[in-house]
Sequence to fold (256 residues):
Amino acid sequence: IAILSLTAPNVYVGTRELSLMLARQVNDDFAAAQRRFPDRIRWMASLPFDFPDDALAELARAKRAGAAGICTLTNIHGVALTDKRFAPVWAAIEASGLPVFVHPTTPFIDGLGLEEFGLANTIGFTTESSLCFARMFLDGFLDRYPRMKLIACHGGGALPYLIARFDRMWEKSSSRRESAERPSAYLNRIWYDSIVYDQPTLEYLIAQVGANRVLYGSDYPFLIGDMTGILARVDALPAPQRRAVRGHNAAALFGI
Fold:
């Protein structure tokens, strides 16, 4: 079974009318694919997130149409997902029980010189994922939405590697704490895909977050996607981890 989602720029383009039209169109197309291939296809809905009233209506419509989850980007036109304007949408998503896959987009403001050498992908995307989830850990987002099911793309970017540094900063800046717990306490509250490119990195991710928090991801059909290599790395894991990452975790998370 493949779970489909729409990548960047998702439906965050143009006017309110265009954004809603695109969301409805892609969700209808995905629902039609599932009806045609019910044993092979599930899908995650896109929402016109920057227009909360429309996002709420489309969330309800997509769930009725059979959406297994929600896909969004790491920022909405440069606005963090933790911004209070999106609070009604997050509350409704949490109440729906649907998992949310957060895919990175190119940083809204490129002050890092990411236009060359594919750096928007290698550094930009992974930095976006790290920043997005770091904000969620630090500003109390997961305290406000304790039942939220979030999936971080590309192995969580740099976050699993940097989490001890976040803890250290949290300890030394007590006057600015907004989360109930240190950042590492939230690390295994979310899920991660297995889109990393060598065995030691996959094994490190599992050591950090647990095999029950990692999901097979393909990155198909993108330029640097490596379905064969990623699957081979998952298959090289010890048997209990292999079974969990290959499909059991996703089946449980998405209710398949």
User: Anything to note?
Assistant: The radius of gyration is 18 Å. The mean pLDDT is 94. The chain has nine helices and nine strands.
